[in-house]
Design the sequence.
């Protein structure tokens, strides 16, 4: 799935139309169908997405001549999502779609009931073997995550991987609708740490989980945005209370949830020097 499209819910079997290379203009004969297109050289992804939307396409699958899968923004000029499903495929998958012809089976689940967060580091070397990672059940931790909300609301969340081999967390928050429950399966290799960030709305409120090391085969429960019980000087923002000579700094979140594993902070917190 690409940013700027809408993930449809449920199952459908739309007819597939291969329109070939798109270099601009109007798409015809694709209303209610899934479109397979090659993005022409110099053509903006949003131009192809707009043409598919104007033509009434139900889904858009895009490939190009570069290795891997294209990642781009496919939404409108005012940063809104388009009312069709948009995905990019590599050359091999595009060939499979063409060969299949007829109709394609699509299944959409906007809020997944499970997530696999997998990471395997190779410190100081590039392995000369197959990098396929197939962890067993005893190598993964199971996390039962509950996202609380007093009323339905959207938000975002992500679990960042930090390892001895690569101590920088890279990623971006994925959309999620609250309230929700989810089962996560998480890597637990040597030196593996995870940092989680969960937000409500457009980032109005945020909770962070600090640095967590999970044990293989263990089962853990996490509660996000559970009711507030007391003030909490947590460590979820990466640092707590510090002193350097005559300078003291206090990280003072405005509130905290009752669970000890999810220290929280409001994004409007500030640093005070004394």
Sequence:
């Amino acid at each position: 799935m690409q940013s700027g499209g809408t993930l449809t819910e449920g199952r459908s079997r739309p007819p597939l139309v291969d329109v070939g290379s798109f270099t601009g203009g109007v798409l015809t004969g694709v209303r209610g169908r899934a479109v397979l297109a090659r993005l022409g050289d110099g053509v903006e992804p949003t131009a192809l997405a707009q043409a598919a939307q104007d033509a009434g396409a139900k889904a858009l699958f895009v490939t190009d001549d570069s290795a891997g899968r294209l990642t781009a923004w496919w939404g409108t000029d005012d940063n809104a999502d388009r009312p069709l499903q948009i995905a990019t495929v590599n050359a091999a998958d595009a060939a499979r779609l063409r060969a299949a012809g007829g109709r394609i089976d699509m299944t959409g689940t906007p809020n997944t009931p499970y997530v696999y967060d997998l990471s395997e580091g190779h410190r100081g070397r590039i392995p000369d073997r197959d990098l396929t990672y197939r962890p067993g059940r005893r190598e993964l931790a199971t996390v039962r995550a509950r996202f609380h909300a007093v009323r339905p609301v959207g938000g975002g969340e992500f679990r960042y991987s930090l390892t001895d081999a690569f101590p920088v967390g890279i990623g971006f928050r994925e959309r999620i609708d609250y309230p929700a429950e989810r089962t996560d399966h998480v890597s637990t290799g040597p030196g593996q740490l995870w940092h989680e960030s969960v937000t409500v709305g457009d980032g109005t409120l945020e909770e962070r989980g600090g640095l967590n090391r999970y044990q293989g085969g263990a089962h853990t429960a996490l509660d996000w945005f559970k009711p507030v019980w007391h003030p909490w000087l947590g460590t979820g923002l990466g640092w707590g209370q510090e002193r350097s000579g005559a300078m003291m700094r206090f990280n003072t979140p405005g509130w905290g949830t009752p669970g000890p594993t999810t220290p929280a902070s409001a994004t409007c917190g500030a640093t005070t020097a004394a």
User: Anything to note?
Assistant: The domain at 10-108 is CATH 3.50.30.30 (Glucose Oxidase; domain 1).
